[in-house]
């Protein structure tokens, strides 16, 4: 819903009244979010009170899906950053448990793909590893006792930390790109795309970044360096869907999903080079 509010801000600023009008703004304005544009006084600003854990409230960009084309596109402006973020764990108490846990896995995805990046740096290593520790411990505690408020505060902090690496210029990779395509094409909720894809993305990448993946496994409490196994174990332990077939994705969709993911700019940031749509179909097959 926070991404939707961001795109609504864009529509209000530019008097956009139908999806076609958004075309001129797709993918633009991803520059320095600390720079106020000349029209800053003409934007309506927001205050964010998150009830889930996807952490959209900490970015200057938002995604919106076009159901007619089955694609998700990014929109961005420094003015889309909320002016205030109120992190109150009590506000998550009415959130359905499945939704809270799956969006928590989306935050895990943010941190894991950044920690796996070959472009990482000491700052990102620190904040992303801390995010994984906070999130995994907190999500497990919430799953055991949904009435306990303390771990909800812990995972809110972890979700915030999962986005901090982006401030150091470290981005996510093909897992997010496939998730964008999968969600828009098949209607899979964003958090469930992370549950079903992230372990397979790590397994596909493992030959390119084993030392990076060992950091992920360590942060999740697994000492053998197998990030894929550590992440899959976390998903299973939370009682969340583990396979694409669990969330209604059909093999017949793979070619279309892969084609759309290849057009996502994040695919270029992957630790292992993605050379063709066939590479993405290979990941989808692993996750099936």
What structural keywords apply?
single chain; 288 residues; mainly alpha; Dehydroquinate synthase-like, alpha domain; 2 domains; two-stranded parallel ribbon; two-stranded antiparallel ribbon; 4 strands
In short:
This protein is mainly alpha-helical.
What would you note in describing this structure?
By secondary structure, the protein is mainly alpha-helical. 49% of the residues lie in helices and 6% in strands. It folds into 2 domains: 2-85, no CATH class; 89-287, Dehydroquinate synthase-like, alpha domain (Up-down Bundle), CATH 1.20.1090.10. The protein has helices at 2-14, 97-115, 122-144, 150-164, 174-186, 190-205, 210-219, 227-237, 254-262, 277-287; strands spanning 47-48, 61-66, 71-76, 84-85. A two-stranded parallel sheet has the order 1-4. A two-stranded antiparallel ribbon has the order 2-3.
The CATH topology of the largest domain comes to Dehydroquinate synthase-like, alpha domain
Could you say how many structural domains there are in total? Answer: 2
Report mean pLDDT, rounded to a whole number.
93
Which CATH class of the largest domain applies here?
Mainly Alpha
Strand order of the largest sheet: 1-4
Q: Return Rg in Å.
A: 18 Å
How many H/I helices?
10
How many angstroms does the end-to-end distance come to?
Answer: 28 Å
Low-confidence stretches: none
CATH architecture of the largest domain: Up-down Bundle
Percent of residues in beta strands: 5-15%
Largest sheet: 2 strands, parallel
Shape: globular
